[in-house]
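Issue 218. Parser rejects a valid record. Input:
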Amino acid sequence: MKNLIKLGLLSVVTAGVFSACSSEPKSVEYYKDPKNAQELEEKVKECKKDPDSELKDKECFNAYKAQTTKTFFKKELQNEKITDEEVKKFFNR
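Output the parser choked on:
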């Protein structure tokens, strides 16, 4: 009976270890989502501790890419002003 309990506990622990190891890294889209902004900041902060983390860790790569994309578009489109003449040129082609 004791061996059966030990075997059951060992099975649970083994399953837990393997499920933790096989989890998929979070995607760029996941990190781009505004509701995950805090998690993105935390992940980037964690990844910056290791200079090569972008090369070693797929999740760090995805977090950096999401942050770069969000920052690029935010800066590029934030103060962009288009005149009426430019709009007319574009749509009158």
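Fixed in the parser; the record now loads. DSSP finds six helices and no strands in the chain.
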